[in-house]
Design goal:
By secondary structure, this protein is mainly alpha-helical. The protein has helices at 2-27, 33-47, 49-64, 66-75, 80-94, 100-123, 128-131, 155-179, 188-208, 213-243; strands at 143-144, 148-149.
């Protein structure tokens, strides 16, 4: 089973990312490892924008429906069938999919694993024999802007990645927090979402602490793109709410 998943999902993505990375490194990033990671990350996010946008849109829309979801749950507390019917009617009315969060994670997972394999292979020099088959040089510069060695841990990049992760989480919850009534207790899902705004940056630091700075740079670039995407989604939802 694992071998099948590897062949269907991981290997094709890895091969595409591999070719893209070295094309960017040789032609667009001035042979800078860090710049190549940033450009590759943004390229992947742009190419997969429709998928990521749809997943984030549904996630954000459901978060902002939490006050209405909680009202339905309170009204039909003793009747699960009516509660389920009312919730599905609410989802249909607002054209959102409650399972989008799970699907969004599934979509991101193979992309993240393939990028992890690529960056790890470059950072540990394990990928260089493959590189020699498509290029003339036998090495990849480890530096980012001539200042940061991508093979080593960099606390500054880890801090930047954690801060951007916090900003992304903040923007994903700002509107739902404002729409929630102050005299009502937040639902469990709302509370979990608010807690994750602070938990995810801490998890970011823990995950990146023992990895090379190349991963921190990739994480930061991904979070920065997601912030812009989240702001656009927030505006779309705000426009919809004002026109309805």
């Amino acid at each position: 089973m694992f071998s099948l998943i590897y062949q269907i999902f991981y290997q094709p993505l890895f091969n595409v990312f591999f070719v893209l990375f070295f094309f960017i490194y040789d032609n667009l990033a001035f042979n800078d490892f860090g710049l190549a990671i940033i450009v590759l990350t943004l390229t992947i996010r742009i190419l997969l924008y429709p998928i990521f946008h749809k997943g984030m849109y549904h996630q954000t829309a459901i978060q902002r429906l939490q006050p209405k979801i909680k009202d339905i749950q309170d009204r039909h507390k003793g009747d699960m069938q009516k509660q389920s019917e009312a919730l599905w009617e609410l989802y249909r009315e607002h054209k959102v999919n409650p399972f989008s969060g799970f699907l969004f994670i599934l979509i991101q997972l193979p992309v993240f694993i393939a990028m992890y394999g690529l960056i790890r292979g470059i950072a540990t020099n394990a990928i260089l024999p493959l590189y020699s088959s498509i290029g003339q040089r036998q090495e990849v510069s480890a530096m980012f802007l001539g200042l940061i060695n991508m093979h080593n841990r960099d606390i500054l990049l880890i801090a930047v990645a954690a801060i951007l992760q916090f900003i992304q989480g903040y923007y994903s919850l700002t509107q739902s927090s404002q729409s929630a009534s102050k005299d009502k207790e937040p639902s469990m899902q709302e509370q979990v979402g608010r807690n994750m705004v602070y938990i995810m940056p801490a998890m970011t630091v823990l995950i990146l602490w023992n990895l090379s700075s190349a991963f921190a740079l990739y994480w930061a670039a991904t979070a920065a793109f997601s912030i812009v995407q989240q702001i656009l989604i927030n505006r779309i939802l705000l426009n919809k709410s004002t026109t309805n």
